[in-house]
Amino acid sequence: MTEVRFATFNASLNREEEGQLITDLSTPDNEQAQAVAEIIQRVNPDVLLVNEFDFDADGEAAE
Asked: What is the C-alpha separation between 63 and 57, in angstroms, rounded?
């Protein structure tokens, strides 16, 4: 039987200003983004639900 690992993560990647998250994530030394990535990579789920992640219509922040 194959196991599937599910995880939910409150990334707190929401911002007050439109486009601010994209700017923050585009900065190579952004500590919050590095911490989020490190935790997700360590847990390594098959399916991940990310909470508190800003919406942008073009999906640029998610990429």
From this structure: 12
Task: Please indicate, yes or no, if residue 63 is contained in any of the structural domains.
Answer: no
What does pTM read for this prediction?
A: 0.70
Question: CA separation (Å) from 20 to 7, 10, 37, 48, 59?
Answer: 26, 18, 18, 23, 14
In a domain, 1, yes or no: no
Task: Give the span between the Cα atoms of 26 and 11, in whole angstroms.
Answer: 16
10: in domain:
yes
Is 44's pLDDT higher than 90? yes
